[in-house]
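Weekly structure sync, notes
Attendees: PL (lead), two postdocs, one rotation student
Agenda item 3: pending single-chain targets
PL asked that the sequence for the first pending target be pasted directly into the notes so everyone works from the same version. It is reproduced below exactly as submitted, 463 residues in total.
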Amino acid sequence: MNNLLIKGGTVVTSRGNFNGDVLIQGGKIQALGEEIKVSDIPIIDASDRLVLPGIIDAHVQLECAYKETVMTDDFATGTKAAAAGGVTTIIDFADQEQSRTPLEELEQRMAIADAKVNVDYSLHLGVTNIKGEQLAQLEEAVWGHKIGSFKLYMAYRNRGRLVDEGQIYAIMREAARLGAVVGVHAENEPLIDNLLENLVREGKTGVPYFASSRPDLAEQMSITIAGQLAEATGATLYIHHLSTAAGLEAVRDARRRGVPVYAETCPQYLVLTDDVYQQSEGCLYVMNPPLRGAKDREALWEGVIKGEIQVIGTDHCSYTRAQKGRSKDFRNIPAGIPGIETLLPVMYSEGVATGKIDLSNLVELLALNPAQIFGLYPQKGDIQVGADGDVVLFDPRVKWAFTAENLHMNVDYSPFSKLNITGRVDKTILRGTVIYEEGRWCGQENCGRFVPAQVASAGVKLD
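Predicted structure, written out during the meeting:
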């Protein structure tokens, strides 16, 4: 069933909100308005509900491993959890292994996802090796496989992902020619290496010292360098998981010089602070980059409110308490936290319900902007005629807290369990079909599809 009439809700679009109906036929939105009347189509009563566009989580990692530790969510379980949180499209990563070419990595990752996904998806191509003729493969990735973005790591030498400034320059030049976005993991590896060496020598490898090994300066330096390279090449730059006030200022500096640079942050950097590393279960919060102080959190909120940060994604990485707690040495703790299911509830509760942002801002940050930046718009990202019928019915009245029992991610904790949450997903609709309803998955298995990026249509206006 991909025909539905959603009646009587508060419909939230990029153009404003209205009380009315949404008609979906053949998986596409056909009409918006008040008192739409059709026959022989199932009707969903959306009274007292917000009717939101399907959420796009632009930073997801499923079916991956951190060193020898395998994540617990694969593409099947992770995308069901996504649906439970109102996420109808994810953008995951195809991070090139040194032994494979970019196209080999991309095609292998797509084959794995295609066999399992339960929501729609796209991919960032993580380029780590451009020796020989591999740089030329980026054209086929963009124009042939319809990938709209590359991911470059300015860290992780020991994992074979680090690309140096010369490689970044070459890739950015090619990306600018192709119209693709270049995203970066912005942490300065030489600085981190030096600080880590000092901490190891002093015997300070416990979790309480973790944040000091990857300071705000590491992020600021890398964003500054990436901005300079983007300026020199004409590339469009995207900063993944921005975490510091200093990093945000580096983004502002690049924009003042005319560099088209988008910034993404994550709920954890807007809600949590680095004092958790002093707690008994501080290992649960080890992530790269680390959590920061209250002043950084406030600066990021200011950036969100002013529109200086365009996207909020989760950087979802699923590990259990046992996996996170195997070592007392932060170097051996798998980095990352789960969040794909809690993105919308956390941002509604901490953003909209507190008055920091309004519903239009919420939709821009979680749907419209990622769709436009990564070339998925107008198919995704907004409730408008002609778009896919991806819709979330959200009850803003529910008060609750996250527990392992009431969430669907394949983990046994939530980093946000101490929050009092306002608002909960009631139904998630993918291309006109209800796939999640009142606490349970109800869609067909493997109902997700790859969404081709249209790079010529990509972009969001930057102030």
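Discussion points:
- The radius of gyration is 21 Å.
- The longest strand covers residues 4-13.
Action: rotation student to compare against the earlier draft before next sync.
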